[in-house]
Specification:
With 207 residues, the protein is mainly alpha-helical.
Length: 207
């Protein structure tokens, strides 16, 4: 066998091995996704971990692995997965978007809020970003008391933010505290007389 033939044979073997590895990974991904859809979260979690070890920058794998851990009640592992994702260059905002959509698709929106709180406790340096995510979540859920709570948190360093003031007013309104909400809307118009949201709510409330 000539040197050229040996090189060609080696290249062929490497190519075949690579093809087999890709095929195996694809098969494992299909099995993991099937386990996830069938609510076999122990199985899906184990398989997603193997897949993540091979492609540690795949945000969808992390999101499904996180939700699998949430479903199993393993909060520490779910937080660890987010930290690993971020260590591999995946952004917190993008990752949270995928976790949120996956939780919601599973009909378990409450898991997302609990996860945000767990992340906040584990990563205090990301506290403000996570508080903002919690505010958005409770605004979506029309939860007046929690909107008020997180709007006040976000307003603490930004008392002139009309965005957060409008959310505060909305939280108060949802609790039927209309006089307090009206005070906030008036304050918003003092900051920005062109704020259409505050003006519309004041007109509707007859204030």
């Amino acid at each position: 066998m000539t040197r050229g033939t040996r090189h060609a044979l080696a290249a062929l073997i490497i190519s075949l091995c690579a093809t087999a590895a890709f095929a195996a990974a694809d098969a494992l991904r299909l099995r993991a996704d099937r386990a996830f859809e069938w609510d076999d979260y122990a199985g899906s979690s184990a398989m997603y971990e193997v897949l993540i070890s091979r492609t540690p920058d795949d945000s969808d794998l992390y999101a499904r692995a996180i939700v699998s851990r949430q479903m199993l009640g393993d909060t520490l592992a779910a937080v660890d997965l987010m930290q690993r994702a971020m260590a591999h260059g995946l952004g917190l905002g993008d990752m949270l978007g995928e976790v949120k959509s996956t939780d919601f698709a599973k009909g378990r929106a409450e898991l997302y809020a609990a996860y945000l709180v767990n992340l906040r406790n584990a990563m205090p340096w990301m506290e403000r970003a996570l508080d903002n995510q919690l505010l958005e979540y409770y605004d979506f859920r029309n939860d007046g008391p929690m909107i008020e709570r997180y709007a006040r948190i976000m307003l603490a360093p930004l008392p002139q933010s009309t965005h957060y003031l409008n959310l505060l007013a909305r939280g108060l309104m949802l609790q039927n505290r209309l006089d307090e909400a009206a005070e906030v809307w008036h304050r918003i118009l003092e900051i920005d007389p062109a704020d259409a949201t505050a003006a519309t709510y004041l007109e509707a409330a007859g204030r």
